[in-house]
Design brief:
Layout lengths: L5 E5 L6 E5 L4 E5 L2 H7 L4 E7 L3 E4 L3 E3 L2 E3 L6 E2 L1 E2 L3 E5 L15 E3 L15 E2 L6 H8 L14
Parallel strand pairs: 3-11, 11-12
Antiparallel strand pairs: 1-2, 2-5, 3-4, 4-10, 6-7, 7-8, 9-10
Bound molecules: zinc ion (2 copies).
Keywords: Lyase, Metal-binding, Zinc
Protein name: GFA family protein
Organism: Mesorhizobium tamadayense
């Protein structure tokens, strides 16, 4: 196709494989309750690609719009109509190249031993409507555009 960079990812057991092509739309960190609970970690680092830049193979399960491997439990990309959200830790190469977060969400819940990323915009909660307007002209619920009106 083109010279676009391609990144591969997978779950821990390898039952699910995926690829993203080109650079992401945005990269962020989230300290919200859902991200802590679903990852079991202190925060989640994610990158969002256009839906058409994402492809995958393998069987996934979902809960609340978040996907995971039914065999090993690894979090997997959440794919919506327009965008695919990839947990940075599910990519195969570490450390990643060119995926530095430009914003942090729900910073009031950030662990005290973590410091704000110096160049990242800081949001008390989800991104504001004005900020996300730059992306799609619509307010969105933070970094979860794939969340359906359930
Ligand atoms: Zn798996
Ligand atoms: Zn979150």
């Amino acid at each position: 196709m083109s010279n676009d960079v391609m990144r591969s990812g997978s779950c821990l057991c390898g039952g699910v494989q995926f690829r993203v092509t080109g650079e992401p739309l945005r990269v962020g960190l989230c300290h919200c309750k859902d991200c802590r609970k679903t990852s079991g970690s202190a925060y989640q680092a994610f990158a969002i690609w256009p839906r058409q830049a994402f492809e995958s193979e393998g069987i996934t399960s979902t809960y609340g719009g978040r996907s995971f491997c039914p065999t090993c439990g690894s979090r997997l990309p959440s794919v919506g109509e327009d965008e695919a959200e990839v947990m940075i830790g599910s990519l195969d190469v570490a450390p990643t190249e060119g995926l530095e977060p430009s914003y942090e969400l729900w910073i009031g819940r950030r662990e005290r031993w973590l410091h704000p990323l110096p160049d990242a915009r800081q949001f008390e909660q989800d991104r504001t409507a004005a900020d996300s307007a730059a992306d799609d002209g619509e307010p969105e619920e933070g970094r979860e555009p794939y969340r359906k009106s359930a």
